[in-house]
Write a structure and sequence with these properties.
Blueprint lengths: L1 E6 L3 E8 L12 E7 L1 H15 L9 E9 H14 L2 E7 L4 E8 L7 E3 L8 H16 L1 E7 L10 H11 L3 E5 L2 H9 L4 E5 H5 L6 H11 L3 E6 L2 E7 L2 E6 L11 H15 L5 H16 L12 H4 L4 E6 L2 H4 L10
Parallel strand pairs: 1-4, 1-8, 2-6, 4-5, 8-9, 9-10, 10-11
Antiparallel strand pairs: 2-3, 6-7, 11-12, 12-13, 13-14
Helix pairs in contact: 1-8, 4-5, 8-9
């Protein structure tokens, strides 16, 4: 079995670190690194690190498996980089080359990292058909599906929505973390969990973003989590609302912290399904904070989730009766 994670817009990521960014100036890099990138890869990396941690609080969970595309010389490099990290994948070859993205981390302002994301190669109909066939076989052997990250040109905006519907039909846990129309259509397919940041909610149009989150909950989504940068996250479930405060840590780069949050959440849901939402959210926040303590996306040894767990504050309050009565009552999975 595996945890299927989308990597439809795979990337080779170039990390550039400077002591202080001065636009228009020549810089000497304090550090540079080439990594496999993209939100799906970040989630898979953290899940792999958590599995290697051997925390006896959680039952063993399946290894992550990335599903998506890879093409050209940059695609070969992307696959080599995945292999170097021991990350499993099922990738369809494309005529277009895998994109290259850049992350510029300014050590004088680590919370304000600059990210340059390419759009990715245009996917052809035959390539998309091959992906559909591959996904079906991967889902058959998966305990969870994480739909995350952008989609390249040529992939329909309802791609995640259709996969979430398939996962629900097979009783497979599904998590959505996307933006724009992909987020809107994916949420309409009723995944178990939507993890979204406040900026992404605001991008969907007029209206109170928290009200939109509650509407999704009313429609049947088990949990809607709204992160908000360094501010407390909020989570809405059928039974309660939660405010999640991550511990204060020395931030080196916040890039990938939302993906680490997602990985910790999935780890807890699968490894301790009866622990309850407060426990699931606590591990998620600890993973997000651990990621922010390092320059590259992933957990940091100096601020491991295990050492941060007790410093995460999760406050629970009853969901308003009008909302509680409108949501599903068959939620028995944590």
């Amino acid at each position: 079995m595996s945890i299927a994670i989308t990597s439809l817009n795979s990337a080779v990521e170039r990390l550039l670190v400077v002591e202080a960014n001065r636009p228009g100036s020549v810089h000497r890099l304090a550090r540079s690194e080439t990594l496999a990138g993209g939100k799906g890869v970040n989630v898979a990396r953290v899940l792999t690190q958590l599995r290697a941690g051997g925390d006896e609080t959680y039952a063993p969970v399946p290894a992550p498996r990335l599903v998506g595309f890879s093409g050209g010389p940059t695609g070969r490099l992307f696959e080599d980089l995945l292999g170097a990290e021991g990350l499993d994948s099922a990738l369809v070859p494309t005529a277009g080359g895998t994109r290259v993205c850049e992350v510029l981390v300014d050590l004088s302002d680590p919370a304000g990292a600059t990210v340059y994301n390419a759009s990715g190669p245009k996917v052809t109909e035959p390539e998309l058909g091959a992906l559909e066939s591959m996904f079906g076989s991967v889902l058959e052997n998966s305990d969870a599906l994480v739909c995350t990250g952008s989609i390249p040109p040529g992939v329909p905006s309802d791609q995640y929505a259709r996969w979430i519907t398939q996962a629900r039909g097979k009783g497979v846990l599904s998590v959505l973390d996307a933006h724009s129309e992909v987020l809107a259509q994916g949420a309409a397919a009723l995944p178990d969990i939507v993890k979204v940041n406040r900026e992404e909610l605001l991008s969907l149009g007029a209206g109170d973003p928290d009200a939109r989150a509650m509407d999704w909950l009313d429609a049947g989504i088990r949990c809607v989590i709204v992160t908000d940068g360094g501010r407390p996250a909020r989570a809405y479930t059928a039974g309660a609302e939660y405010e999640v405060r991550a511990p204060e840590i020395p931030v080196r780069s916040a890039v990938g912290s939302g993906d680490a949050f997602c990985a910790g959440l999935v780890r807890s849901l699968l490894g301790a399904p009866k622990a309850g939402w407060a426990a699931h959210l606590r591990l998620a926040a600890a993973c997000g904070a651990s990621n922010a303590a390092g320059v590259t996306a992933g957990l940091t040894g100096s601020h491991s989730p295990a050492t941060l767990l007790s410093r995460v504050t999760v406050s629970e309050s009853p969901l308003r009766p009008a909302r509680r009565s409108a949501t599903r009552t068959d939620d028995t999975r944590g």
